Amino acid sequence: MTPARDSELGKAYSARREALERVRDAVLADLRDIVEEDPLVERVTGRVKSIEQFLKKAGKLRADGQPKYLYPLEEIQDQVGLRIIVKFDGERDRVRDEVLTIFRPVEDRFHQPEEADRFGYEATHLVCLVPPDIREKTVSPIDFFELQVCTLFQHAWAEANHDVGYKSKGKLSWEEQRMIALTAANAWGADRVFEELRHKEGSATTK
Amino acid sequence: MAARTKLKAPTAVPIQSWTYDFLAAYDVLASKSLTVREAERNISGGVIKINQEIESYMGRLFERDEETYDIPICFVGDQSKNDSNPIRTHIRALAHGPQEARRRAARALAVKLALATPGTTKEGLLVVMVGQHSGTTRVVLWRFGAGASLSLVTKKEGEAELKVNLRTFTKGTQYFKAALFEGSSARTAFWEGQVRDTQSHAREVDHARYWVNDFLEAQSSITDARGTKLLETAIKATNKELKDPAHQANLTQAARLAATQKGMRTSLSRFADNLLPEVREAFLRHAGSERVREAIFTVDRTTALRRFGARRVLINGRISLQAPNDAFGREVVMGQPDGAGETTITIRGRITREEVRSNDA
To answer: What is the pTM of this model?
Structure first.
């Protein structure tokens, strides 16, 4: 990305941050309204993408060297990102279904490494339309927000990896990358163990 | 080429701001429950050369105003199709694709419309038009019914020609279904649109099934639970504002009716139509913008009962306590039963009415 484009985008993004915070708060309030009495939901969090992260993403290139985002302000869909953290893996789909009673998704998938022998980021990943009432109330500059539904272990891994692994991408040795994959495998294993134990004891909640 | 009729639209609308660069029209026969191949045989038409007469006629309809396209819809990504939506893909091809891609997309939409059209519906004319203005692209689809002022005089692909019949102009412009999509060339554009159906009674028609769900594979832009929640919020805000008990009763009655009518499709505007004029006015002030007010939803019974419903508690078999659901935990606080199974209930609030009644009930 050229410095001029970078500066222009940075200004435009800064100008919308306040409105993005309003969107985040409104969506957060809706999500909390849905899950506030759910004992199997640990918490709901929300963030507005920082200017640095936005510009970094906006500057990404495709394999052919062309910019990945021609219209970053429109095309980057996680300017507002929210996460619902559930206690057990078996609750992800149920919570996702409840969320989709009030939001319309344009993307809905479970993110996980494609190869069976790899471990890494895992979460239910939704891109939803900002509903018309929230758009109006917040004077929203965006049409979409991103929502992840993940377990405590998936969340913990994603957070630690974001600070250590993701930001150092390309600088880590093969062995360091293996170690990070190992922690992801441990998180995956921990979810499996607790899910199985929960079912074994007949404590799985159908709510 | 057929002789052109010199035509002037009844209402002059400034349309010079749009540049029209694609127009296609197809006669479409109902083909629901037929195969795609059979449906393909049931459509005829193609790309139309835009002449002054057509531009003048269609340009007027192409212009958007809230009266014309009043119901917001959105496409929903289909997980099994890589989160895309086939109709949105056609709309995007029409908006930004090369001419051949546009032609294919328009034809595919005609086939889709045929497949969505039930046998009870007469032949219709699908018109697809694309225009550009200041970096924005607009795609509008219309389905005109029998007796419309537009007709295809030559239906062969590559030579298709539309004719405007001045004598039926008024009737033809009054009866159509339409969908409007607008956006930039960003890959995230064209997820939403607006529809209009003038072929049925606007307030009563169920847009969802045929035009929106079956043809466009889209949905109202709000979910049923969200619509119900917005209804409840607007009702509560209105109720706070109303002073006259008769007005309050009118609102409460309408809310209860909405909560109990199974599968009723409505919008905040439609709900308001059943209110007394003074109540309606107050309600609409709390119902949000046109876009929010016109969004269609089915009253979600679970949400409605939770939000509008009441909870009744019978104490010692002789004391009845009834309150709206949302009052529990606020004005009415119920403690945990003690060892003897007795519960302390606290009611806190201002007594607004008190009366003595016979104890027959």
So the answer is: 0.80
